[in-house]
Amino acid sequence: MKHRELTDHIEGSFLKQQYLEAFLVQGAYIESLLKMFADLNFRSATRMHTIKGHDVIGAARKQLAEMGLYKLIIFIKEAGLISEEQSLQLDKYRIRRNQTIHDLIKELKKEEFDAELKNVCEQGSEIIGSAEFSKMSAMLDQMETQAHADEGSGHIEANQPILLKTVSRKKKSVKKPRAKTKS
Length: 183
What we know:
Layout: H1 3-15, H2 19-46, H3 56-66, H4 69-78, H5 84-103, H6 110-129, H7 131-153
């Protein structure tokens, strides 16, 4: 499903006052888009190399795929993919989202719970509607379209570099890992 279709679905659920559906789809969408964006940037930065026959990059990508939203926000902020302001906005959303998820088992009145869901969805809509998030979404859509075109032509190059640094605010220096010494 394309990113625009997902955001339209979220908005449609919200407008129909189906706040639980909007909340669940929105939370999954935000987290998955951030993971895809981080993974593509990670692959681009490492250019899919392996070290001494060990798939270090594959192992790191697996860890990235299994990250929860909290660690993911820290990871993409430290990687310079989002600004401090974006990190704080995402973390505030994460906290509200988690509180709302835990309220699912509380005996709240439907009106109270719907109001809570609506507020979190509005906060999530601000994130999805931000210029930076829109750039991420458009970039991933473009890459998905290109991947489908490459599949159709039979030409897919796995080690092709992917340049995605359009959202970065500042460049950070990357420390090279130290060589291990025997003790």
